[in-house]
Q: What sequence folds into this?
């Protein structure tokens, strides 16, 4: 293989794929990226961790001799970062080495054969649909914070996607860690009907979100089966992320979304957030509970800590049901309030031991459920 | 062009002395604990081969008296095998309430000498006596006093190992069992480890030892001859531990409030298994072994995880969280069996099966309170 590529192009490619590569690898080839130069002048860069694979295609300046080779992802990325801006990089593989030349620099890197590089077998991906990248990015932003990191409940370590018929056909995405739940609903894209329920793992979500940031104006093509999903973005010669799906059953989360909570609190999320944040200063590492006392058009936030004393703050609000005292984990509450881009948020409450529903308003695509703490 | 490593490892950054001076660590281990308690309480059993555990078809030996060990009976061995090795073996039902009571007595003795006590289970603990409460100063002397106090209070014997880190102290307590004491002094650690078979290293099981044998490693000296990279290449993250252990180095502090995250166990089979009946039998055996550990560690958790390693080395785990902490063996076994049934039929034969109980309730009160205060959606 011999090809020449703009340093900026190489760097962009590698920055997209290298975070897929785990820093500590027991299988040597997983530390490498696969470089493929083809006769039509394209260069393709692939990284994988066996569960997740990202492929990016870019135009090379020239391909003198087509071929493929694998080299250390982090080494090549670090080299590309340090090469002078505007330079052209020549990549030439021969005799088990790859020579990287740019300006007056020359590197000889060890390689591993391309045939040893594992490629995820996608199999049939019968469900195909597209959605604006912006929508998918918002869906991820609104739900990913609730993804569980507890590995014993591995089936919660991702975002759950499924289609349903509510008032009309919809696609829903949900994430939960057992204490809080975030759900995002959008009209069902054409082609998504009959889609199997899937759980996209957390790492894939993180990488996907980064890639989306660079192509927010376009559409994302999504192809999936019950075991794999592929996201293609950036149009022709763009980036393709393929991931295995979590093999597990997501709990029937709809039954924990309260429907009959009759106590409605309306409040400015920013003032509320700031108040919770201030009183939580007193909270110790272990007990993050903030108590909310709801009275007529007023919320009193308070924290009592055996070690650090007490804190209280009143926040104006709209509330006309009977008085109620309820506690929440301050961080969970802040996570949700931080998602509301409006000057009003609704909290639908029942009692201090029941799930609370939180949303911007009844038209908002995002909905949150938060379980209280005993205080 | 090559960075030369310092030949004197003790002065290397890995060494004990470089990390803030030498400590005085004692590892105390009761001799054949459960079995000894049974022999103490029933004079008929004294001098006879005794095993604690279920004698029925699928039971395992939780502990064996020294008389039984002479026949090759070991803990975690299927009772059937034990009976074959020693036909006169007397089986006793375990009495965990009694073991817990004795365990409380010995912990009280430890506490009289140092607040830095790290119990590993009901019958063993690490003590850091670098600054002992009574100002005795000599760790060997303290170990002798503790052994005498345990004998006085419980009529049971304990073995103790004294050294300057946990790894060596544990090896030492094993050295002159039962009713023995062994001291590994500063400077002797590396030499002591040299002659040791790798199987004696904490964390090296039968399969690990087999793998090492294939690589030509039989003793600590063989391990010490390998460099860090080589060990990492063959044993992954375990390699680092082996590198240090082979030089008698262990910097882990004695943690008095160690919070266990999980209790579990697993077995690698000599032959891969696939048939549902065989899988169920194996699971029952592992349930016995792990439940015994759960009892021993006084653990209470909510999540049961089944681990399967297929013959292509792919690992699958299946977990089940219960609405409340596991209270008894029936509840634990039930959860484990459901996990296995859900996994059947298996796509491939398996080479390993394991069970873990996690989501344990914390040791301290504040943790327990805070864990319970957050209510669950599911």
A:
């Amino acid at each position: 293989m011999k090809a020449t590529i703009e340093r900026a192009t190489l760097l962009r490619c590698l920055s997209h794929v290298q975070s897929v590569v785990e820093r500590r690898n027991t299988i040597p080839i997983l530390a490498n990226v696969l470089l493929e130069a083809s006769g039509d002048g394209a260069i393709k860069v692939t990284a994988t961790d066996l569960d997740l694979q990202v492929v990016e295609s870019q135009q090379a300046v020239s391909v003198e001799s087509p071929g493929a080779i694998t080299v250390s992802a982090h080494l090549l990325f670090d080299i590309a970062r340090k090469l002078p801006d505007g330079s052209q990089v020549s990549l030439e593989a021969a005799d088990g080495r790859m020579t990287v030349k740019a300006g007056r620099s020359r590197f000889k890197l060890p390689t591993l054969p391309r045939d040893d590089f594992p490629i995820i077998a996608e199999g049939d991906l019968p469900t195909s649909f597209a959605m604006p990248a912006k929508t998918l990015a918002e869906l991820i932003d609104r739900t990913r914070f609730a993804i569980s990191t507890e590995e014993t409940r591995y089936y919660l370590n991702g975002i759950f996607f499924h289609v349903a018929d509510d008032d009309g056909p919809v696609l829903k995405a949900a994430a939960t860690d057992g204490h809080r739940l975030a759900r995002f609903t959008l009209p069902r894209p054409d082609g998504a009907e009959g889609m199997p329920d899937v759980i996209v793992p957390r790492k894939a979500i993180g990488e996907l979100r980064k890639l989306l940031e660079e192509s927010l104006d376009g559409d994302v093509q999504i192809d999936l089966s019950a075991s794999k999903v592929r996201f293609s973005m950036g149009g022709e010669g763009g980036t393709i992320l393929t991931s295995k799906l979590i093999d597990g059953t997501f709990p029937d989360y709809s039954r924990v979304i309260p429907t009959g909570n009759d106590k409605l609190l309306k409040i400015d999320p920013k003032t509320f957030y700031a108040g919770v944040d201030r009183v939580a200063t007193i909270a110790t590492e272990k007990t993050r509970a903030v108590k909310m006392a709801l009275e007529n058009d007023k919320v009193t936030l308070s924290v009592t800590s055996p070690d650090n004393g007490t804190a209280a703050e009143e926040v104006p609000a709209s509330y006309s049901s009977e008085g109620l005292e309820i506690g929440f984990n301050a961080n969970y509450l802040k996570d949700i309030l931080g998602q509301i881009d409006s000057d009003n948020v609704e909290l639908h409450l029942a009692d201090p031991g029941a799930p609370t529903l939180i949303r911007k308003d009844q038209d908002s695509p995002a909905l949150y459920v938060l379980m209280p703490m005993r205080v | 062009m090559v960075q030369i490593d310092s030949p004197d490892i003790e002065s290397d950054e890995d060494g004990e002395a470089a990390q803030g001076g030498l400590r005085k660590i004692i590892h105390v281990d009761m001799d054949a604990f459960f079995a000894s308690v049974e022999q103490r309480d029933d004079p008929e059993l004294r001098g006879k081969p005794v095993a604690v555990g279920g004698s029925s078809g699928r039971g395992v030996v939780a502990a064996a008296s020294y008389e039984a060990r002479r026949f090759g009976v070991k803990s975690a061995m299927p009772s059937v095998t034990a009976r074959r090795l020693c036909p006169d073996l007397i089986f006793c039902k375990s009495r965990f309430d009694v073991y817990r009571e004795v365990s409380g007595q010995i912990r009280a003795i430890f506490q009289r000498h140092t607040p830095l006590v790290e119990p590993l289970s009901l019958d063993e603990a690490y003590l850091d006596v670098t600054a002992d409460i009574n100002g005795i100063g000599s760790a060997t002397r303290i170990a002798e006093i503790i052994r005498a106090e345990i004998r006085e209070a419980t009529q049971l014997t304990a073995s103790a190992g004294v050294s300057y880190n946990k790894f060596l102290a544990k090896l030492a307590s094993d050295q002159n069992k039962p009713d023995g004491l062994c001291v590994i002094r500063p400077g002797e650690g590396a030499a002591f480890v040299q002659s040791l078979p790798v199987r004696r290293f904490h964390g090296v099981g039968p399969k690990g030892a087999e793998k090492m044998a294939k690589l030509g490693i039989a003793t600590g000296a063989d391990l010490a001859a390998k460099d860090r990279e080589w060990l990492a290449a063959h044993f992954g993250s375990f390699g680092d531990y082996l590198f240090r252990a082979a030089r008698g180095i262990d910097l882990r502090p004695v943690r008095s409030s160690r919070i266990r995250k999980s209790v579990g166990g697993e077995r690698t089979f000599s032959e891969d298994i696939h048939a549902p009946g065989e899988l169920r039998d194996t699971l029952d055996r592992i349930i016995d072994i792990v439940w015994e550990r759960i009892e021993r560690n006084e653990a209470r958790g909510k999540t049961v995880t089944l681990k399967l390693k297929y013959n292509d080395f792919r690992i699958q785990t299946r977990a089940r969280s219960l609405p409340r902490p596991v209270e008894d063996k029936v509840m634990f076994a039930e959860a484990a069996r459901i996990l296995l049934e859900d996994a059947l039929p298996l796509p491939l034969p398996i080479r390993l099966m394991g069970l873990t109980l996690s989501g344990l309730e914390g040791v301290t009160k504040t943790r327990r309170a805070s864990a319970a205060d957050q209510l669950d959606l599911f």
